[in-house]
């Protein structure tokens, strides 16, 4: 509960005091009358804020997670729980950076008033709805009293997604069982034989070769690993020509991330200085809804270092940026990705034709629309 006197209210109060004092000192009747009138206005304004409402307020969103462009609807229900009729009031409902003003009529005891409202979802965002406050005050706006009735709730406007079912096979496939170049003495993939060294596990002695050569020989293996996909997104505004390119980049990361989770693969999503939650697709999309460009954010030049530092075991790395970095910048940014990691640099350039250039384990791809993403992946794989 908060009583607030506006600037106009304070000005009226000061003018009233000045008018009364000077009117009395100077004997100027008109000035004293004006001061008295202003004082009366201030007193009436304060009296109009007096009184205690007793409401039960419910703020309900039909769905707290929606896709960009989907209809988001909320319901506000206010019920008078007092034993007497309530006075008319104004309901203030903040929605994101704006606010809606709703007129609440006089309600009898136990009577409920409903309002249905729609929330714009044209852009990806985390929209804070509420808290609901009732406002009482005078028509001139000299003073008002706010009473808070609910806590704020968050509406997640998720980015657009494109289905990648089948398109990512081969790129985001499970690499478990595929060998790396790292040798081990205790894995599942047999690689070669070597001379026995004191301390070696006798279970791995190859007896046939030992008998043939007359010297102990042990099996040597190649390490196997389960795939981890690392997605790294540039959040430096200097990497993007406009906001639409950044939205395309976020949607690309979200689409790849959701498909990876649906295939039950390990995933790391590196954005800014931290990671996004990857326990479930909805949590990942919730975090994607709040991703923003930041001055000094992690740019293309640092994405490879981020993967090397925070996801060194990744077998697949996808670096996503805008159209501004040159081909040389893309290669330089990917240079720090650990050796042996399949790396794809996705350059989001709105309206451009699909392009893919592959050299060794590095692919540079140009993505013009989100619908082109499955085609890009197929070309990368091929």
Can you walk through the features of this model?
This protein is α+β, with helices and mostly antiparallel strands. Helix content is 27%, strand content 33%. It has a seven-stranded mixed sheet, sandwiched between helices. A five-stranded antiparallel sheet has the order 1-10-9-5-6. A three-stranded antiparallel sheet has the order 2-4-7, with no helix packed on it. Helix 4 (243-262) packs antiparallel against helix 5. It is elongated, with a radius of gyration of 33 Å.
Which helices and strands occur, and which strands form pairs?
Elements: E1 2-5, H1 7-26, H2 29-47, E2 55-61, E3 65-67, E4 72-80, E5 89-95, E6 98-104, E7 112-119, E8 125-129, E9 133-137, E10 143-148, E11 153-158, E12 179-184, E13 189-195, H3 207-213, E14 217-224, E15 228-233, H4 243-262, E16 266-271, E17 274-275, H5 281-289, H6 300-310, E18 316-321, H7 327-334, E19 342-348, E20 355-359, E21 362-367, H8 373-381
Parallel strand pairs: 3-11, 15-16, 15-18, 18-19, 19-21
Antiparallel strand pairs: 1-10, 2-4, 4-7, 5-6, 5-9, 8-11, 9-10, 12-14, 13-14, 16-17, 20-21
């Amino acid at each position: 509960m908060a009583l607030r006197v506006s600037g106009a209210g304070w000005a009226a109060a000061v003018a009233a005091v000045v008018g009364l004092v000077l009117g009395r000192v100077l004997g100027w009747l008109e000035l004293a009358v004006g001061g008295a009138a202003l004082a009366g206005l201030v007193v009436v304004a304060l009296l109009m804020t007096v009184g205690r409402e007793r409401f039960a307020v419910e703020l309900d969103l039909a769905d707290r997670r929606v896709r960009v462009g989907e209809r988001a609807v909320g319901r506000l229900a206010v019920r008078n729980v007092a034993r007497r009729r309530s006075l008319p009031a104004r309901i203030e409902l903040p929605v994101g950076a704006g606010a809606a003003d709703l007129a609440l009529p006089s309600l009898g005891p136990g009577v409920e008033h409903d309002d249905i409202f729609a929330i714009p979802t044209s852009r990806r965002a985390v929209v804070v709805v509420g808290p609901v406050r009732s406002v009482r005050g005078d028509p001139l706006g000299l003073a008002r009293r706010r009473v808070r009735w609910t806590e704020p709730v968050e509406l997640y406007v998720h980015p657009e997604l494109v289905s990648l079912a089948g398109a990512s096979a081969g790129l985001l496939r499970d690499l478990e069982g595929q060998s790396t170049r790292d040798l081990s003495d205790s894995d599942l993939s047999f690689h070669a034989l070597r001379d026995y060294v004191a301390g070696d596990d006798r279970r791995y002695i190859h007896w046939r070769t030992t008998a043939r050569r007359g010297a102990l020989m042990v099996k040597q293996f190649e390490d196997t690993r389960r795939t981890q996909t690392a997605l790294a997104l540039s959040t430096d505004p200097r990497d993007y020509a406009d906001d639409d390119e950044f939205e395309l980049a976020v949607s690309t990361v979200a689409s790849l991330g959701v498909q990876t989770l649906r295939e039950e693969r390990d995933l790391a999503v590196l954005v800014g200085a931290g990671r996004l939650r990857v326990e479930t697709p909805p949590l990942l999309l919730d975090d994607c809804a709040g991703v923003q460009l930041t001055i000094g954010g992690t740019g293309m030049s640092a994405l490879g270092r981020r993967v090397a530092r925070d996801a060194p075991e990744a077998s697949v790395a996808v670096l996503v940026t805008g159209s501004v970095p040159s081909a040389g910048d893309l290669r330089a940014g990917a240079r720090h990705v650990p050796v042996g990691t399949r790396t794809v640099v996705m350059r989001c350039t709105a309206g451009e034709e699909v392009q893919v250039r592959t050299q060794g384990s590095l692919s540079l791809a140009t993505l013009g629309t989100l619908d082109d993403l499955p085609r890009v992946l197929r070309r990368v794989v091929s």
